[in-house]
């Protein structure tokens, strides 16, 4: 992506590489909209103002390529006679909009971050390695611009987990039937009680075990909240539960009892094997989903941490 706007936008069809020139971005947008079933590439949309009208179209994909700073500096030596200090100054101007002049402010590529669909870090040693990586990314796959149902609902579960007030971990769950949301839930203390993160659950807030004191957890799990919200009658048959963590044993038996037929999760849990065994015996499909990296919502915890979480 070019750091500077081009006065004459161009677009190249993917197959024959013939360039098409347009007097402005409005004409470019009109043309690609009329020919949306063909594939075009442009590097002339370099500001947020120019890109936003294209982002609204369901066929547009914004690709970002970057590389470590020192890698880019070394590559630039073949065509630029520039010191490292000057190169870094130019980099900061393009990426962050920094300028030595108080009266001028360069366009910031950093401001485009939320619009990017795919990011490629080009730290490869050869063009062939880069091309091979791009082939694996499969830029023309429709899932890059329109998520699958699994990606859609798992992203919702990740978002729901942000409402969690449990001190132990963030978990979100979405209960679905026929690709329609029945209910959502996140973990935390029951209605009317003090939130866990405000001291409402002694178990989750206690860092050391105390003898002779009851420290039972009073937090409802995300899956429990979703099931309670929906109720058995609304769950019905063929319901699917999406959760950003594999259900614990406590939730597994309730999921089975309410008639859920498929459970999709992301992060591992210490009792996965036991839960999987019960699901298998009850005829409930359990599968793991690897989230699409294009979604910017971070998982509640990374897998390395989740694998050691105590029930």
Automatic annotation (TrEMBL):
It is an enzyme of class 3 (hydrolase). One of its GO terms (biological process) is nucleotide biosynthetic process. Its cofactor is Zn(2+). The keyword ATP-binding does not apply. Residues 148-278 form the CMP/dCMP-type deaminase domain. The keyword Hydrolase applies. Keywords: Hydrolase, Metal-binding, Nucleotide biosynthesis, Zinc. InterPro entries: APOBEC/CMP_deaminase_Zn-bd, CMP_dCMP_dom, Cytidine_deaminase-like, dCMP_deaminase-rel, Deoxycytidylate_deaminase_dom. Its EC number is 3.5.4.12. GO terms for cellular component: cytoplasm. One of its GO terms (molecular function) is zinc ion binding. Belongs to the cytidine and deoxycytidylate deaminase family. This is Deoxycytidylate deaminase. It comes from Pholiota conissans. The lineage of its organism: Eukaryota, Fungi, Dikarya, Basidiomycota, Agaricomycotina.
């Amino acid at each position: 992506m070019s750091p500077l706007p081009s006065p004459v936008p161009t677009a190249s069809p993917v197959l024959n590489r013939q360039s098409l020139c347009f007097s402005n971005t409005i004409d470019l947008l009109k043309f690609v909209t009329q020919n949306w079933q063909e594939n075009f590439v442009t590097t002339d949309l370099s500001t947020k103002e120019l890109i936003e009208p294209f982002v609204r179209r369901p066929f547009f994909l914004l690709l970002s390529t970057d590389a470590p700073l020192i890698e880019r500096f070394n590559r630039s030596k073949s065509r630029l006679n520039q010191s490292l200090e000057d190169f870094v100054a130019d980099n900061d101007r393009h990426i962050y909009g920094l300028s030595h002049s108080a009266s001028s402010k360069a366009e910031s590529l950093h401001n485009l971050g939320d619009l990017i669909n795919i990011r490629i870090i080009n730290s490869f040693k050869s063009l062939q390695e880069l091309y091979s990586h791009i082939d694996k990314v499969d830029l023309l796959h429709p899932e890059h611009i329109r998520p699958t149902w699994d990606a859609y609902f798992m992203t919702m579960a990740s978002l729901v987990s942000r409402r969690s007030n449990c001190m132990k971990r963030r978990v979100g769950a979405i209960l679905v039937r026929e690709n329609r949301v029945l209910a959502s839930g996140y973990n935390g203390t029951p209605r009317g009680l003090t939130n866990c993160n405000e001291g409402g659950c002694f178990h989750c807030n206690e860092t050391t075990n105390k003898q002779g004191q009851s420290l039972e957890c009073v937090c409802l799990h995300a899956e429990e909240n979703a099931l309670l919200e929906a109720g058995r009658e609304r769950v019905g048959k063929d319901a699917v539960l999406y959760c950003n963590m594999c259900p614990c044993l406590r939730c597994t038996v309730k999921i089975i009892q309410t008639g859920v037929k498929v459970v999709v999760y992301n992060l591992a849990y210490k009792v996965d094997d036991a839960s999987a065994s019960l699901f298998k015996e009850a005829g409930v499909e359990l599968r793991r989903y690897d989230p699409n990296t294009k979604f910017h919502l971070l998982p509640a915890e990374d897998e390395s941490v989740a694998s050691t979480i105590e029930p």
